[in-house]
């Protein structure tokens, strides 16, 4: 099989901008929860109007799932798109681990100092440090310390698996890429069938309508989430090979909205990722190919790129800023105007914290250590007459 691209691939700025929208969806999910994932699971939603509070919680009840699934597919796409042929596994691991661990450790320490240290047993926070906590089916482990960090366990598995996956995926014939994408989607469906009918439905989760173990296996457990990552890898290959159909980005957005409506109406476990996987593929592929054609997508400008760059920090600090920050306000809900101001304050605080993580932790770390320093040539001593 001939390689699809020889020259260096262009940056896809729209996908950077879309990362922030995905993180914003997760924010909307978190800030409208009636039950915090942090014990004692008190309300986060600040609206006293019960009808409005319930409407917002239902409206955004699948937004977090959509945002996370988008992140996972996008990770597979972007890493495949930017992969350097012939790069060894160790330089790749170095770069990817430095991308996630510094931000994680900063937020871990902050969460432990502010609230988690008093409510988290050692058996939960020790695996959390090493991003292994979502491998455990116990609810107090997989949402321990800084709850959003569970997704980093999946990302860690993706990074460790990528050097093993990229070779066979590169060997797939271009005309069979969509077949293998379909196989991955079928595997995703099978995971949720097992979740619904095989995994024990007790004990019940305090924050979902299913059991703690079902929620873990169908949503949290990193191994089944590999299918979404591989979908992203296959879509990247399809774009490289010119096999992605030309789809106007204006059509991909209604497809995403339709997928989200299906997620809201479908049985709970199918809203994790199955209902929205095809729209996610359409959006990522459509915006990527639009970038390649040099089109203005509305999310590839400088401001959107900046928001995308801080999106990881914006996401990973939500467990502290939203779940702990909400406790700094009166526990009783607020009138609608005040609740809107509280929500805005939490958003701005999350945005500021995300920018601080990017500017003070993530970017300096990546700049300083993500690639080995080039050693200066040793001067040659030459005898002079």
Description:
By secondary structure, the protein is an all-alpha fold. It has one domain (22-369). Helix content is 65%, strand content 0%. The protein has helices at 13-31, 50-59, 63-82, 89-119, 122-129, 139-142, 150-170, 177-197, 212-220, 222-240, 249-265, 277-292, 302-309, 311-316, 318-324, 336-369. α3 crosses α7. The relative contact order is 0.17.
Jot down its keywords.
single chain; 385 residues; mainly alpha; 16 helices; globular; disordered N terminus; disordered C terminus
Set down the secondary structure blueprint:
Blueprint: H1 13-31, H2 50-59, H3 63-82, H4 89-119, H5 122-129, H6 139-142, H7 150-170, H8 177-197, H9 212-220, H10 222-240, H11 249-265, H12 277-292, H13 302-309, H14 311-316, H15 318-324, H16 336-369
Helix pairs in contact: 1-3, 1-13, 3-7, 3-10, 3-12, 4-7, 4-16, 7-10, 8-9, 8-10, 10-12, 11-12
Summarize the structure.
The chain is mostly helical and 385 residues long. The protein is 65% helix and 0% strand. The longest helix is centred in the C-terminal third of the chain and has 34 residues, at 336-369.
Radius of gyration based on Cα positions:
22 Å
Proportion in β-strands: under 5%
Number of distinct helices: 16
- In round numbers, the mean pLDDT is 92
Count of structural domains: 1
Between the first and last Cα atoms, what is the distance in angstroms?
59 Å
Proportion of residues in helical segments: 55-70%
The H-and-E topology, N to C, reads as: HHHHHHHHHHHHHHHH
Number of strands: 0
- The best one-word shape is globular
Oligomer: single chain
**Which residues form runs of ≥5 with pLDDT under 50?**
1-6, 375-385
For the biggest sheet, the summary is: none
Class from secondary-structure proportions: mainly alpha
């Amino acid at each position: 099989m001939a390689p699809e691209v020889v020259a260096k691939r262009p940056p896809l700025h729209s996908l950077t901008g879309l990362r922030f929208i995905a993180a914003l969806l997760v924010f909307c999910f978190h800030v409208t929860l009636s039950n915090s994932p942090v014990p004692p699971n008190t309300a986060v939603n600040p609206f006293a109007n019960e009808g409005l509070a319930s409407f917002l919680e239902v409206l955004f009840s699948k937004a977090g799932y959509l945002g996370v699934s988008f992140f996972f597919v996008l990770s597979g796409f972007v890493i495949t798109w930017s992969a350097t042929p012939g790069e060894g596994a160790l330089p790749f691991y170095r770069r990817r681990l430095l991308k996630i661990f510094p931000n994680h450790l900063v937020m871990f320490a902050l969460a432990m100092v502010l609230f988690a240290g008093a409510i988290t047993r050692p058996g939960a926070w020790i695996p959390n440090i090493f991003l292994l906590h979502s491998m455990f089916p116990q609810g107090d482990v997989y949402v321990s310390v800084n709850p959003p960090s569970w997704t980093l366990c999946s990302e860690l598995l993706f990074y460790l698996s990528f050097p093993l996956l990229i070779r066979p995926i590169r060997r797939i014939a271009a005309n069979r890429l969509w077949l293998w994408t379909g196989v991955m989607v079928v595997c995703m469906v099978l995971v949720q069938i097992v979740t619904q009918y095989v995994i024990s439905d007790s004990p019940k989760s305090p924050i979902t309508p299913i059991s703690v173990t079902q929620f873990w296996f169908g949503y949290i457990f990193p191994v089944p989430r590999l299918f979404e990552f591989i979908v992203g890898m296959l879509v990247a290959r399809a774009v490289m090979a010119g096999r992605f159909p030309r789809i106007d980005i204006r059509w991909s957005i209604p497809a995403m909205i339709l997928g989200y409506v299906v997620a809201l109406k479908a049985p709970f476990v199918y809203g994790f990722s199955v209902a929205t996987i095809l729209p996610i593929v359409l959006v990522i592929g459509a915006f990527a190919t639009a970038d390649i054609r040099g089109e203005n997508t509305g999310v590839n400008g400088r401001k959107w790129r900046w928001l995308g760059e801080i999106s990881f920090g914006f996401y990973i600090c939500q467990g502290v800023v939203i779940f702990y920050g909400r406790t700094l306000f009166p526990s009783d809900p607020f009138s609608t105007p005040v609740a809107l101001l509280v929500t805005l304050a939490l958003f701005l605080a999350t945005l500021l914290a995300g920018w601080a993580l990017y500017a003070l932790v993530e970017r300096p770390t990546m700049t300083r250590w993500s690639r080995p320093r080039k050693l200066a040539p040793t001067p040659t001593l030459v005898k002079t007459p």
